[in-house]
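Lab notebook page, bench 4
Experiment: in silico fold of construct C2
Operator: M.H.
Input chain length: 375 residues
Purpose: comparison with the prior construct
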Amino acid sequence: MENYNQNLIRQNELLANQNKMLSQINELMLRQNKIIQQQGELLNSAHTRETFVENIDRDEMRNGFLVTSHRKKLWNVQIGLINEFARICKKYSLKWFAYGGTLLGAVRHKGFIPWDDDVDVAMFRPDYEKFKKIVMPELQPQFKLDNWYNYRLEADEYEYSEEEKNNLPLITIEQTRKYPMWWPCRPMIRIIDRRTTMVDLSIRKKLYSGIWIDVFPFDVVPPISDEKRAKDFEVRKTLHIASSFPTDFKEAADNGSLKIISKEDMYKFLKMPYRQRGMVLDDLNEKAFVNPERVAEIQNYWLNNKRFSFDKKALDKITYLPFEKIQIPVPVGWEHCLTSEYGNWRKMKITHAHSSEYSVDIPYTEYFAKSPFMR
């Protein structure tokens, strides 16, 4: 009888352990199902996005230009990206404002310029650097941050590892020659919707991208009254252009035509991989942001034939203007900004789009894997 009771006790203990294990398995299955459900919701959310554009499923004429439903859906994704960017900036009290064609669209059209297909926003360098530090854990999983220096340069002498070759897209010599002011040779960041595809007209086949918005830092530019800071600006300018054209500047260092930077310092800089050079340049620009009088998106200022900059005081205060169905921040001195950049900005002039090939339904990973034209 005693043995029977002991066996019964053991059986009960085994049953209790089995029930506990079954309970744990059920809990794990519930968690897995929740993860699968969340993944499904993420994949399907491209079709259930909030709508920020009027009559999104209809073509219409705006300012004599045909705006298709297809383009409106692109805009809608970009406004979703603006909202994600704005959410993070608000949480950390970071200042930002519309810039370029997005500012012009807000003022002149109360939304997108009818023939435009991108979004430009800007931040003063200190806020931009803070944003870079906090953004990664904050972004929702359907979005991705891309930094201008997270690439490798074909012209580099630096020996990239196999891991770097697999993870860092290649910038070809042809691209740097043909598009020295275009992504990713331009110091900025992009926020990308992973669920989409957008093929930049200037970008090579291996630089895959979803629909994006551009976030530009505004840096100190001349006139700079302090002699040392003015010289530092010229050093930063030289280093930045050298970063995209290492072969040319190595030759310049060899033949003694570099005046503002020593041969040794230039060699040391160019031995770094492209990513490290980019981080050094961002750090130098952040340290230089002291009592600025004039600011600009710095590569545009350096390389654009039509050089322009802004009085920082015109950007210090922010107001809000309608942009499709949302409100976006713009500088109180928006007229100064538009006149500085465009001259007679009230006169409409159609410009080229960034992309003729995009999708709000197909993730860029799928598009580039399946398209024979992109291999």
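Observations: The first helix runs from residue 2 to 44. Residues 1-5 have pLDDT under 50 and may be disordered.
Next step: discuss at group meeting.
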